[in-house]
Amino acid sequence: MTFTNHRNAFLKIFNATARYHHRHKVFEDFVSCAAIALHNGVMHDAELEKQYLSIIAGYEKQDAIQMAELLGHVVMALDEERCDFLGSVFMELELGDKYRGQFFTPWDVSRMMASLQLSGIDALMQGKDFITLQEPASGAGCMVIAFAEEFAQRGYTVSEQLWVSVTDVDPLAANMSYIQLSLCGIAAEVVTGNALTLERRRTLYTPLHYTARWAAKLGSANQRAA
Predict the structure, then answer these.
(1) Distance between alpha carbon 193 and the CA centroid of its chain, in Å?
(2) Which of 12, 115, 150, 209 could cross-link to 205 by cystine, CB 3.0-4.6 Å?
(3) Of 70, 65, 71, 31, nearest to 51 (Cα)?
(4) Rounded to whole angstroms, how far apart are CA atoms 191 and 199?
(5) Residue 105 phi/psi, 5° resolution?
(6) How many whole angstroms separate alpha carbon 207 and alpha carbon 201?
(7) pTM, to two decimals
(8) What is the rounded CA–CA span in Å between residue 3 and residue 102?
(9) In angstroms, rounded to a whole number, what is the distance separating the alpha carbons of residues 169 and 150?
(10) DSSP 195
(11) What are the distances in angstroms from CA 176 to CA 54, 167, 213?
(12) How far apart, in whole angstroms, are the C-alpha atoms of residue 5 and residue 113?
């Protein structure tokens, strides 16, 4: 299946899933469960598992199965093409809420902005093993994914040379970021909180953060800087 096939399949399955719930609730619940599944597949957390089971308990068996199918299409779509898949389908499903500011940056705009940000990357990388990036209002992670794609196009290895810290005040947006950064192979911490007040209500690390031992790399870099 092509990227477009996966997108169309996602939309079709989503629209047929749990018609007894509001569409926004189904999307939020899907995103919450998908984020927990990806996290607990690498680093099990009992509290997250309880949250997952509590959410799924509100769905009939067939709808729970279809949620797993939705995640499968997200995985395969992002494997075909790195982009803001979840943000784009969220907008296409007309789930944006102008009062919560849930309007996501178009992919082409994000790529252009990332290209501008990386204009001096070669000089910045001299003498460095890796760089870190902070995104204080991550949305679905579009800007970070675009940055990583541009970074890779300049010959750098995203999994080894880029670590990201992203924050969003909205749990839905933070979970969307977590899913997409995880599936795009980006080492990151994803904070649900407020970057202005430094509030951190929840912090999740992507699978690559664990498997590539980024905690040790970041610790070593901090020791050298000190």
Answers:
(1) 15
(2) 209
(3) 31
(4) 9
(5) -60, 130
(6) 20
(7) 0.93
(8) 24
(9) 26
(10) T
(11) 19, 11, 23
(12) 28
State the DSSP string of 27-88.
HHHHHHHHHHHHHHTTS--HHHHHHHHHHHTTS-HHHHHHHHHHHHHHHHHHHH--S-HHHH
Count helices and strands in the chain by DSSP H and E runs: 12, 4
Q: What's the average pLDDT block by block, 10 residues per block, for the chain (226 residues)?
A: 92 97 96 98 97 98 98 97 93 73 73 86 92 94 95 95 97 97 98 94 98 93 60
What's the pLDDT score for residue 58? 97
Residue 217, token pair as written in the block: 């790399």
Per the DSSP assignment, residues forming a β-bridge with 205 are: 189
Distances from the Cα of 116 to the Cα of 33, 52, 147, 150, 158, angstroms: 35, 40, 10, 10, 18
What kind and span of H or E run contains 21? none
- Do residues 52 and 31 touch, judged by C-beta distance below 8 A? no
C-alpha to C-alpha distance for 104 and 159, rounded to whole angstroms: 25
Q: Quick one: DSSP state of residue 105? A: P
CB burial of residue 60 (10 Å; 0-12, 13-18, 19+): exposed
